[in-house]
Task: structure prediction
Amino acid sequence: MIRVMLCGAADTRRVQDEFVRTVTAFGGVSWHFLDGTVNYINSASSDWEENSRATVQEADVCVFVIVEEIGRITWETEVTAALLAGKPFLVLCLHSTYQQYLVLDAAFRPPADLDSLSEGNRHLVRILREIEQERRLTAVPFDHGRFGEVLRRELSKLFDIALGQMEERNRRKSIRPLLTDPARLTTTDLRAAQAIAVDEWEDKQVRKAALRALAARRALDAEALHSLLASGEQGVQRTAVELLADLHPARPPDPELLEHVVAVANVSDDVGIPRRLIPVLLAMDLPRGIEALTLLDMEDIGSKRRLAAALEKYEDAVAREGLQAAVAALLERCLSQVSESDWKTRCRDYLARLGFEPAPPDHDD
Result:
């Protein structure tokens, strides 16, 4: 059974009966500190905040309610615990109290001092500002006698979202076996595959499989491509670079996209990104690839080697298309030592501080 926890100050007793009736009608179990339905351990080290935090962890849904008073444990402990645990929750506020907040918020805009307000009003303004303006949460107003109706409506919205997520999860599971056979994917399947590919919480191997299927079908949109090129998952980002020619099939390729990918490579801590990117750009479009590569940072020796080798493979095409001067400039950059790697400079400085003479720098760094 679903466990729904009512959180708030002692004046939430005014909505407690409606809360219990509504949750029971949903087939759930209601939890509230006023009726003792919270997790607790009585001992010499007992702590109400720990009890509240433990109950939030066990609850399936938390309902945070402001009637008139502000409960310290609710807003200092329970909300934070719910956010950190990823718990679904609602914030409901008595309509008259919410209107009072709106008036005070307008009259005491930051940086105005709130000290002239009563303690209760100070807490009200600070808490609702934190909820709405800092945490970007939504507080839903309710009127006297209509708490149960509003709660039922908002719980129904949560269930609707949950069912939608279950449907999406089931759809994703159903297409996983098809990712190795991209020709069988329908238009709907391809949309689901794109959702899998860009989901940073999805399994890495599944994301890469979806990415390969999308590349095979050339079915990734521009926004998703930019998202994948910026992925925090190294393996996914590398795969996106390797498959760039198929993920962006337009020919000639968009020069702004090529410049964007080079910019991504320049700020990446992963040397595998620029090294993979070099042959991909040249294969997509030789003149535009060469132009984009003039923007690539050349401090990595591995990138220099790969660029020189990749350009040599296109020697005939370079001569045929009159690209000798541009290629020569890139080759000169491959051969030049523009600046020493930062870690080597620091290493030599440290060696000198230890009282030893630094060895001369290698000429092939």
